[in-house]
User: Which sequence fits this backbone?
């Protein structure tokens, strides 16, 4: 499993958010570099953003969720065309799980296990 994973739940529909495109990036001095991307599976999970044995550097990372395309595919208007979640990886940590609870007009996130 990737050292950085996510799980997206559509709280309006009460089910996993399937097929959301997600991009993983790491912050450099003045730029962001893409490390991986993929789409959530039938359970709303994405476990393949990085190779299983990829090391995590002490850095700021971000997950960019293409929520606009997801809601458009459902015929639902949304206020958020994308959700960007930035988080800091500390030295010595080997896994970060970053769930996203999503609705067309709000979202929340937390560090999971």
Assistant:
């Amino acid at each position: 499993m990737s050292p950085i994973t996510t799980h997206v739940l559509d709280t309006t529909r009460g089910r996993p958010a399937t097929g959301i495109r997600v991009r993983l990036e790491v912050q450099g001095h003045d730029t962001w570099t893409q490390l991986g991307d993929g789409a959530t599976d039938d359970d709303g999970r994405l476990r393949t953003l990085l190779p299983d044995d990829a090391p995590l550097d002490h850095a700021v990372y971000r997950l960019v969720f293409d929520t606009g395309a997801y809601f458009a595919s459902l015929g639902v208007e949304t206020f958020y065309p994308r959700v960007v979640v930035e988080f800091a990886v500390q030295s010595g940590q080997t896994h970060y799980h970053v769930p996203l609870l999503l609705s067309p007009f709000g979202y929340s996130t937390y560090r999971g296990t």
Notes: The chain has one domain: 4-109.
